[in-house]
Amino acid sequence: MGIFDWAKGGKKPKAAQTDRPVPRHIAVIMDGNGRWAKKRGLPRQMGHKTGAETFRTIATYCRDIGVKYFTVYAFSTENWKRPQDEVDALMNLFRAYLTEAAETMVARGVAVRIIGDLSVLPDDLKQQIADVHALADTLGPDAATASLCINYGGRDEIKNAVRAIAREAAEGRLDPETITEDDISARLYTARMPDPDLIIRPSGEIRISNFLLWQSAYAEYYFTDVLWPDFSTADMDAAIDDFNRRNRRFGGV
Ligand code: FPP
Fold it and tell me: Does residue 171 form part of some domain?
């Protein structure tokens, strides 16, 4: 039994449920890792390590049930304020995951993408991300996509889009009077993907914490008290079933 099996009580994920509609794009704020570790008397890093394993399980499950886009908040623009050893541990988890993604992505058929202001990341991580993106580009537009938001902030993303638009307008390439919402969407990190349909936040917190601010205009939210490292495929099923019971009107009647 591996370390993650004992951590989760040795539960096996149940078979993928494929007989119902699923959201095209599900996003998750992976919260509660620290509390999960504290409850067990473990260092916070163990919560993140187990949370990374939960990400693998849930991303795979989403692919299996036909979710085309799965996006997670892995590190915010504010998370640099955490103790250095915690930041280092998270960066090492990203390194390990990117190594694995580079080796397995083509066989799994899932394009892995990293979203955020990547300019300040360590050089080796930037190189790994460039390599993984180059591989993702070979998979074609129909591949399922798993996106990790790293050094991501919704306001920071919008600010960068505004700067890009202002630059283009100053250079005469864009007419300020004709700027559309699509022009703004096209300059966000998520330019290539549809807006999220369902945003899940575990751990009992009920706020959006600067996540996908522009893109979440019509998203359905789902909150649960389960801590992210404990989040199971059954929890994902419950979130999707709840989503399927909602009546999305997009401002209509
Ligand atoms: C918030 O929980 C979680 C984070 C800041 C980090 C999330 C990152 C991971 C799960 C690892 C991702 C790695 C890969 C490879 C996908 P918290 O630490 O704020 O928890 P707390 O509120 O209980 O303290």
Answer: no
For 67, 86, 109, 149, the CA distances from 27, given in Å and listed in that order, are 11, 24, 19, 10
Asked whether residue 10 is assigned to any structural domain, the reply reads: no
Whether 235 is catalytic:
no
Q: What share of the chain is helix, strand, coil (3-state, %, to 5)?
A: 50, 15, 40
Provide, rounded to the nearest whole percent, the portion of the chain with pLDDT above 70.
Answer: 94
CB 157 within 8 A of CB 189: yes
Residue 6, pLDDT above cutoff 80: no
Q: What is the mean pLDDT of residues 179-191?
A: 97
List the Cα angle 3/33/94 in 5-degree steps: 75
**What pLDDT was estimated at residue 248?**
75
Among 31, 156, 197, 235, the active-site one is: 31
Please compute the mean of the pLDDT values over residues 43-70 and round it to a whole number.
97
| Residue 216, in any domain of the structure | yes
Q: Could you give the number of structural domains in the chain? A: 1
pTM of the model: 0.92
- Give the residue, by CA position, lying nearest to ligand 1 atom 22: 32
Residue 15: predicted pLDDT: 67
Domain presence at residue 190:
no
114 DSSP β-pair partners: 148
Domain that holds residue 216: 21-153+195-244
